[in-house]
Design brief:
The protein contains eight helices and 44 strands. The chain is 7% helix and 54% strand.
Length: 806
């Protein structure tokens, strides 16, 4: 007996250590009607004994005393398809909130269990869709907590530009991607936004505020319009309505603070707010090269306030704001220095500000009907000023500065999206809605940069006014059995500026042949405006030549096959063909220009007069082999083989700027407990992408104009060497009693591989070498270590009685 007591006392610290626990809670509703489900069974199945509970009359559940670590949560309800959630991270600092939607079984015979990772959130999405998991932005090496960079790991998407996070889907221009936030279309959500692009060097989207979201790569449902490549449908999560929780993070990319908690526990209202600031000055202090000698400055704020109104309604107010500026000053340099984010022959002053604020009203009309209205105001204010630096060719000393470019693009958009979702039966659902985007623009632009000796200013933009894009849609889902589902819909849109209109059918099918074999297929006709500033560009006679340019059109055909190889292992194959028509091309005879080649970089595109006479096509095959997280590790292998071509006014099909022919990603990670409280985090990513295409240079014309001029008839006939990069991630997570610490370093391009970005023209180099050399190769980022330290903690829950007393 004595020995037993002694052993117990010796083991007591270990036994106490094992009791570091946390709450796991959430709300479970019907997927189509959003009605709360009562009596749903929720069980943490991977611990002994299992911890379980059932939902209350409001669909809420709470699992108390769940040990820290990663767990499997099983959710089941009679008459509904069960769901198993793997890889649920539980820490000592923050409660885990799991909003869950269950789908009613079409045939109420036996329980159906979904055990693999959910492929989409949108109920109408059956093909070419991927759920963006917020945890993956933190887990994947090289993602930098950026949703867009994380998406480049998916089959069919690629990055290949270290300086930007543009999403290139199946050889399409990144301009073809639509960004949506909490139901409304939004402008480019990146710092240092260039008009006419959808990417940038740093995302404004903070992963600490995001819920899981949908990423569409083709034939997307009818509720999405004004996009021909893909859709990133991002959602902000609600704050914890039961406990005050905080996050602080310090790293080379900046400082972050986040807070969430209840506004009133009695009503269930909550707040969520996150702020981030960075100057990247630490990189310069540590002599780490980031592609520029200047210091980029940026900051952003994200918030969401949620107010339940009884049991049937909900009001949410949300917003994102971002400020960014950089002064690329080269006049103080004593030797030529390439600038990855701009041009090396001029001082550039650049400011980009973006704001999004909106409100959502959701209401459950009856047991089968749900409606939602979202209104928002978005705005961008982008300013640039360039001074060309003339130098002494012999000494490189500055001779003089000349103002050569200035523009200020201000765009404010009033956005509305209303829809009604009706669950007709367990087998049928219908959804219809209206979207309206009113754009008010104030666009000013003047240039005299080509050649730099030009004295006469050319005004390229001078517009103050507005236009409206109206959209409507209806979509229908039919599930004759749990194994078979069909969707169909129509999307319509109309641009008041020039009367452009479209009517677009969408179809989808998903058929589970067995529990392990799934076939998918989809078709969609899609349309998109050209970039707004291009409609209002003026020629030397002050005429807006491109005002009447119509929509780009695109037809998507997709088939796919998925094989469940094991509980956490699956193989997915998908083949596609995309035909693009009504593509804007130049009216100039012999021109190879196509709008399908624009959309990246740090400059705007001002083509000659346009017409909708171009065509293009993309086709390819993609594969994904994924072992989801379990037993301490995960593996993801994705690849795509594709061809992307476009035809200009010369009638010749050529490879587009984004046709790298192939793209492969291999990712893996391993987590191991170092003790009762600590976890080692490791990750690796290897990327191989075909070489970027480029064109032979017309040297004489380039020297005359002072800018890069290619041989038009030989566009994209040359190729750089393939892009190759390896990233590593190393970190440790430690759960103390009330606080979680995480310290990690992302080693981007760990082998310092020299990847070529472009061939760049320099008028200054032409002058220095007296015409012997005027071009140089621009290289991408080398080795880049990104360190961060994060701390999460919570404060004891306030009493509901205290809230009522207030």
């Amino acid at each position: 007996m004595y020995k037993t007591i002694v052993c117990f006392l010796l083991l007591l610290p270990c036994l106490c250590a094992a009791q570091r626990v946390q709450r796991v809670k959430g709300t479970i509703v019907d997927k189509e009607s959003k009605i709360s489900l009562v009596g749903v069974s929720v069980v943490v199945t991977d611990i002994t004994p299992p911890i379980g509970t059932v939902t209350d009359p409001n669909g809420n559940f709470v699992l108390e005393n769940v040990p820290v670590g990663k767990h499997t949560v099983s959710i089941s309800y009679l008459g509904y398809q069960s769901n198993t959630m793997n890889d649920v991270l539980v820490t000592s600092a923050k409660e885990v909130v799991l909003p869950v939607e269950l789908e009613e079984s079409a045939v109420k015979m036996k329980e159906v269990t979904v055990t693999n990772k959910r492929e989409h959130i949108n109920d109408m999405a059956l093909v070419s869709t991927k759920t963006f998991d917020v945890q993956e932005t933190e887990r994947y090496a090289g993602s930098r907590s950026d949703p867009a960079r994380m998406a480049s790991n998916f089959a069919g998407t690629q990055g290949g530009d270290d300086s930007r996070n543009d999403i290139i889907i199946r050889g399409n221009s990144p301009q073809g991607v639509l960004w949506r936030l909490d139901g409304v279309d939004i402008p480019n959500p990146n710092h240092f936004d260039i008009p006419g692009t959808t990417g940038g060097p740093v995302s404004m989207l903070n992963s600490k505020t995001l819920a899981n979201s949908d990423f569409f790569m083709g034939a997307f449902p009818a509720e999405y319009g004004d996009a021909v490549a893909g859709v990133f449908d991002v959602r902000l999560r609600n704050g914890n309505n039961d406990k005050d929780e905080f996050t602080a993070q310090l790293g080379l990319l900046g400082t972050e603070l986040a807070a969430e908690g209840p506004i009133s526990r009695a009503s269930g209202s909550s707040f969520l707010v996150a702020y981030r600031y960075s100057s990247l000055q630490l990189f310069q202090g540590l002599n780490i090269k980031i592609g520029t000698t200047s210091i980029p400055n940026y900051q952003d704020l994200t918030f969401k306030l949620n107010f339940p109104i009884g049991k049937k309604s909900d009001i949410a107010v949300f917003g994102i704001g971002g400020l960014s500026n950089i002064n690329l000053i080269v006049s103080n340099l004593s030797q030529p220095t390439p600038q990855l984010y701009g041009e090396s022959d001029r001082d550039q002053y650049f400011t980009s500000n973006t704001g999004i604020v909106g409100a959502t009203y959701s209401h459950t009309i009856d047991q089968n009907t749900y409606t939602k209205l979202t209104i928002a105001e978005t705005g961008t204010d982008i300013y640039a000023h360039h001074n060309y630096v003339f130098r002494d060719p012999a000494t490189y000393a500055v001779d003089s500065l000349k103002n050569i470019l200035g523009y200020n693009f201000l765009t404010a958009t009033s956005v509305m999206h209303w829809y009604l979702n009706k669950k007709l039966s367990a087998k049928q659902t219908i959804k219809f809605g209206i979207i309206n985007n009113y754009y008010h623009l104030n666009l000013i632009d003047s240039s005299r940069q080509y050649p730099p000796t030009e004295q006469q200013w050319q005004q390229r933009e001078n517009f103050n006014g507005g236009t409206d894009l109206a959209q409507a849609y209806i979509q229908y889902k039919y599930r004759p059995t749990d194994a078979l589902a069909f969707t169909g819909g129509i999307h319509a849109q109309y641009l008041t500026l020039n009367g452009s209109k479209s009517l677009e059918p969408r179809l989808g099918m998903r058929w589970a042949l067995t529990n392990k074999d799934i076939i998918t297929a989809g078709y969609g006709l899609h349309s998109q405006m050209i970039q707004l500033y291009q409609y209002f560009a003026i020629d030397t006679f002050k005429v807006m030549d491109n005002k009447n340019t119509g929509f780009i059109r695109s037809q998507h055909f997709i088939v796919g096959y998925e094989k469940i190889l094991a509980e956490k292992l699956r193989l997915k194959l998908e083949a596609y063909y995309q035909y693009l028509f009504n593509v804007p091309i130049e009216t100039r005879i012999g021109s190879s220009y196509s709008a399908l080649d624009q959309g990246t970089g740090y400059s705007r595109d001002f083509p000659d007069s346009l017409k909708n006479g171009g065509t293009g096509y993309n086709y390819g095959i993609e594969f994904t082999l994924e072992k989801t997280f379990g037993h301490g590790y995960y593996v993801l292998f994705t690849g795509s083989l594709f061809n992307s071509q476009a035809r200009g006014n010369d009638g010749v099909y050529r490879n587009t700027d984004y046709d790298t022919h192939y793209s492969f990603n291999l990712l893996g990670g391993y987590e191991r407990k170092l003790g009762a409280y600590s976890t080692l985090i490791t990750g690796i990513k290897v990327t191989l992408i075909g070489g970027m295409l480029y064109s032979p240079v017309d040297t004489a014309s380039s020297n005359k104009v002072g800018d890069l001029v290619v041989v038009d008839s030989q566009r994209n006939t040359l190729e750089f060497k393939p892009y190759f990069r390896t990233d590593l991630k190393l970190g440790v997570r430690f759960n103390s009693k009330k606080v979680t610490h995480e310290i990690a370093v992302d080693l981007v391009n760990v082998f310092n591989t020299q990847n070529i970005l472009s061939e760049t023209y320099s008028y200054g180099l032409y002058q220095q070498t007296h015409g012997a050399q005027s071009f140089y190769l621009q290289y991408q980022l080398g080795f880049l270590p990104i360190f961060y330290y994060r701390i999460d903690f919570g404060i004891k829950r306030r009493s509901a009685i205290d809230d009522v007393g207030k």
